[in-house]
Write the structure tokens for this entry.
Amino acid sequence: MSTNGGNRNGDAAELRWPDGDLTRIPDWVYTSDEIYDREQERIFRGPTWCYVGFEAEIPNSGDFRRSYVGSAPVIFSRAEDGSIHVMENRCAHRGAEFCRELKGNNPDFMCPYHQWLYNLKGDLIGVPFRRGIKGEGGMPKDFKLEDNGLRKLKVASRGGVVFASFDPDVESLEDYISPEILKDFDATFDGRKLEILGYWRNRQRGNWKLYHENLKDPYHATLLHTYLTTFGLMVAGQKSAMVADPTGRHGVMASAMGEQDAEIVAASASEMKKFETDYQLEDGRV
């Protein structure tokens, strides 16, 4: 539950959590620009692993796809040797977001601003007029290509899922996820070949935490998304649990079908004002 608590966009040092109250979240948690910037720096650019994409999205050498780590635009690509790389989608020269295509296959990346050229691993391989013209102008004599590549992220892949981190010293992906959560992860991504069927995107103006918290709110699920009950995806008697790791950093929402009690089902339906029984799938193949 949220509450109007203090300056919505003030200095973070002036923002205080309500004394003695852990249940009401102040609005500024979702609206403060300074809090948001601090989250980006400490969480998404900190010692964490973030999901970037699937190996199945870049199956061939030269394949690439754009993604994000927090608010930072990144590219993940497959190099000629089959290795996977993630780099920030900002030219090392002037910070231009050089890759505009959502996906594709290229032997390299070129920034359109000054045509700096990078390979699929993010290394700088070409600079126009590096030596100037007839010895006049150009880059300093001590300028080295190997020192001016794209900002590279640390990469880890497990079960075909690609993760990246801005912190080169971040703990291993397995330790970060924790053995407890890893069991559920590996049960889903168990080595079977993944196939990308398509994409569904929903852009919204909202804080990232609000979206995340909505996913963790099962109370609204059958009340708002009535198809879940109609098609038996969430029903009365279903057993659910939130499994957290010992550090409290990660959790898994798990559910399993229970025995269907007609009386419980009827009582549940009576509480739902929008309960429908005659929904049909438009595409019968599903």
About this structure: The two ends are 37 Å apart (CA to CA).
